[in-house]
Specification:
The model has no long low-confidence stretch (mean pLDDT 86). It is elongated and about 40 Å long. The N and C termini lie far apart (36 Å). Strands 1, 2, 3 and 4 form a four-stranded mixed sheet that branches. By secondary structure, it is of the alpha+beta class. The relative contact order is 0.18. It has three helices and four strands.
């Protein structure tokens, strides 16, 4: 059942249903990415006790962003500007 619920959440994200999205900042050492979308857990909290998680496509995009930031010596980046570096 947990996997089915997760797949439903991914489908909602792919269908552009952003009602369950929380935007937070992510830090990796000195690097900061702002406005990173996190998906809310269906029951309000997950097994780790947190209220949201990073979907796999967001984690993939973060790897692209952090690599860009390292190569271009940037300390801050806005996740919504991802299309500018692709």
């Amino acid at each position: 059942m947990a996997l089915g619920g997760l797949l439903d959440r991914v489908q909602k994200l792919q269908n552009e249903d952003h009602s369950d999205i929380i935007k937070k900042d992510i830090r990796n050492g000195n690097l900061i990415v702002k406005n990173v979308p996190h998906a809310k857990y269906p029951n309000g909290f997950g097994p780790d006790g947190k209220d949201a998680y990073l979907p796999s496509h967001v984690v993939y995009n973060l790897t692209i962003i952090f690599n860009y930031m390292i190569k271009n010596k940037r300390l801050n980046f806005n996740f919504e500007d991802l299309d500018l570096i692709r």
